[in-house]
């Protein structure tokens, strides 16, 4: 979905943020639609509310893929275009769980360390 209203342009795209190719496609579609990218906000985040000793490798991988891997590759791909444009901003959203322990969110806190 795309919109133009009072000089503000936006679009929404559904994607699997844990999939690097989907993230690259998102940035490509943004450039295709708007010819540049001014701001990237990495705000995706998931948690699996389980006690620390019950978390599995699959649980850990799911959280890290969304919360860390996605942020890294989305920022990297956006930065490639921002460097060419000689402008742009990247904002990463962290979490209070990266500095304050909360029950059953240890993997989330680890993925959001700043």
UniProtKB/TrEMBL annotation:
<dbReference type="InterPro" id="IPR002347">
    <property type="entry name" value="SDR_fam"/>
</dbReference>
<protein>
    <submittedName>
        <fullName>3-oxoacyl-[acyl-carrier protein] reductase</fullName>
    </submittedName>
</protein>
<comment type="similarity">
    <text>Belongs to the short-chain dehydrogenases/reductases (SDR) family.</text>
</comment>
<dbReference type="Pfam" id="PF00106">
    <property type="entry name" value="adh_short"/>
</dbReference>
<dbReference type="InterPro" id="IPR036291">
    <property type="entry name" value="NAD(P)-bd_dom_sf"/>
</dbReference>
<keyword id="KW-0560">Oxidoreductase</keyword>
<dbReference type="GO" id="GO:0016491">
    <property type="term" value="F:oxidoreductase activity"/>
</dbReference>
